[in-house]
Amino acid sequence: MHKQNVGFRLVLLIAGVLLLAAGLMMAMSPAATMRAISILLGLILIIAGGVDLAVYLGFRRLLCGVGWMLASGLVTLLLGVLVLFNKWITAVTVPVLFSVWILFAGAATAVRALDLHHFHMRSWLLYLILGLLQVVLGIVALFQPLAAATLVSILVGVQLMLRGVDVICTAVIFDSFYL
């Protein structure tokens, strides 16, 4: 086994364990998770809006059509403030965003499983099951937004645990991927 492989496997294993731990903490503390997510999302939107406004102010005389950047920056900044200080906005937007993320992450895992199957890897079925579970979780969350709003931290926690298992499995069978 190559020394580099051992390092990659160790990093993957640590990442998988951290994902599992984060998922478990999120699933066990829904209120704290929603507040943390809303604060993070609000701050990211405020920073993104501020960057748009700074670019507008710095380049308004050099670029055509930067008025849209001004509008985008103001709307993004306003949305960030609303998310940060209005729990209702967060309760509506966060579940939808995470539902879409869970759905796409699951689809990516399922596609990877099909690639593994193509190369006759024994672990393909495990990845397919993990991916399909994530897809189902994402669809349920997307079509049940009220339930997802109350259960978003549990859904995200379960998703992080599934991703953790995915990463740990990759760490364990890493040498199979090395060509």
Question: What keywords describe this structure?
Answer:
179 residues; mainly alpha; 7 helices; 89% helix; 0% strand
| Backbone structural class | mainly alpha
Q: Count of DSSP E strands?
A: 0
Distance between the termini: 12 Å
Order of helices and strands: HHHHHHH
Q: Treating each run of at least 4 consecutive H or I residues as one helix, how many helices?
A: 7
Sheet having the most strands: none
What is the overall pLDDT average?
81
Gross morphology is: globular
Strand content: under 5%
Report on the structure:
The protein contains seven helices and no strands. The model has no long low-confidence stretch (mean pLDDT 81). Helices cover 89% and strands 0% of the residues. By secondary structure, the protein is an all-alpha fold.
Short description:
This protein is mainly alpha-helical and 179 residues long. 89% of the residues lie in helices and 0% in strands.
